[in-house]
Amino acid sequence: MVTEALSHVLSGSPAERVLDRTLRAHRSLSREQRQALAEVVFNVGLWRRRLGFLLGNPEAPVPALLYAFLHRLAGLSPEDAVRLSGIGEPQPLAAGEPLSLALRWSLPDWLAEHFSREFGPAAEDFCAHLNVPGPITLRVNPLRTTRAALAERLRAEGVETRPGALSPLALHVVGPKPNLYGLDSLREGLFEVQDEGSQLLGLLVEARPGETVLDLCAGAGGKTLQLAAAMENRGRLLAYDPDAGRLDRLLQRCSRAGVSTVQVLRAPPEGVLADRVLVDAPCSELGSLRRGPDLRFRLDPASLSELPRVQHDILARAGRLVRPGGRVVYATCTVNRAENEEVVLGFLRESPGFRLVPPGAGWLDPSCVREGFLFCAPHLHGTDGFFAAVLERVEG
Ligand SMILES: C[S@@+](CC[C@H](N)C(=O)[O-])C[C@H]1O[C@@H](n2cnc3c(N)ncnc32)[C@H](O)[C@@H]1O
């Protein structure tokens, strides 16, 4: 069962889905056995390159990878690791650290090279943090409750939390992963699950009650809900996304959260002059790699090169939809200057009617500002990786 699940993960199936399928097919497993299976599937999926290095074979078969994981990373004796992996006899494992960043942190070569270019010497620390699962972070829904009241309510439901340091809306779950989807507080719309860095992007829009706000890449509405709450459910909040299914989910979430101001646009907006526009752009998502053990192995480096043109076009559209004196927030969840700074600087070069303004002046923690842009990352802030620029259309 373990070998079969791992074979699927190593040949490209998402680990979460494989685990789910395997657990459903083996319902008699005890709680401990289920936990052990999850650990093995996630860790062998994540550490496959490093395990291949230990075995001296980048194409090592699944039982050998399992043995290397159990003995060297999980600390089992060679005898126990042999028995559980079914390999027959102990295998020699390399001593010492791999020389390359890619092997040390079990990344594809191209990705490790990319992070080296992005971060220089800090790439080691960044990559190490990609191999530690991020915290589960909740965003309180201020239309329904306060952060302190939500923390009390969650405690009564058996979930301990602590407040986030960067976003006044954030609560981090403390201790073992709870089944959030079984909680009444979730069904009542008291919170959403949202990384603290992602919350900063929504806050950066600084949407106010009564304004016209356009969420131009609304998806399933994570930030739309946040904007609606900031607007205290007053004003005009327009949400567009080309993916109709995501917009349907957005509407369901709105009703749960008590949001009544959202107008969903099924076609690209025209003729709007909004006070604020959020471009939460489609991107390579390199900032979210710690969210899944095997996301990194499913990325196609060629697809990265197509994104800046798409992002440029969406940002240019946003520029046409904001009023003089209004603001566009351009945001991504990636660590890639070509999709971040370069898209914004290219837009500014061809749009003299816009200027870059300091992000979150007066409230954003200065550690989240890099070269005039919002930038946060797992090794610096404990968040996923995010980038944002605040662009003001000059009055005229
Ligand atoms: C990062 S996701 C948005 C996440 C969403 N804002 C949230 O907080 O849940 C990017 C979204 O951009 C949408 N998208 C792709 N191409 C687009 C385009 N040309 N114009 C607008 N949105 C686009 C995708 O469908 C996707 O939902």
UniProtKB/TrEMBL annotation:
It comes from the Bacteria. Keywords: Methyltransferase, RNA-binding, S-adenosyl-L-methionine, Transferase. Pfam families: Methyltr_RsmB-F (PF01189), RsmF-B_ferredox (PF22458). The keyword Transmembrane helix does not apply. PROSITE patterns: SAM_MT_RSMB_NOP. Residues 126-394 form the SAM-dependent MTase RsmB/NOP-type domain. The active site is at C333. S-adenosyl-L-methionine binds at D241, D280. The keyword Transmembrane helix does not apply. One of its GO terms (molecular function) is methyltransferase activity. GO terms for biological process: methylation. Gene3D superfamilies: Sun protein, domain 3 (3.30.70.1170), Vaccinia Virus protein VP39 (3.40.50.150). CDD domains: AdoMet_MTases. Belongs to the class I-like SAM-binding methyltransferase superfamily. RsmB/NOP family. This is RsmB/NOP family class I SAM-dependent RNA methyltransferase. It comes from Archangium lansingense.
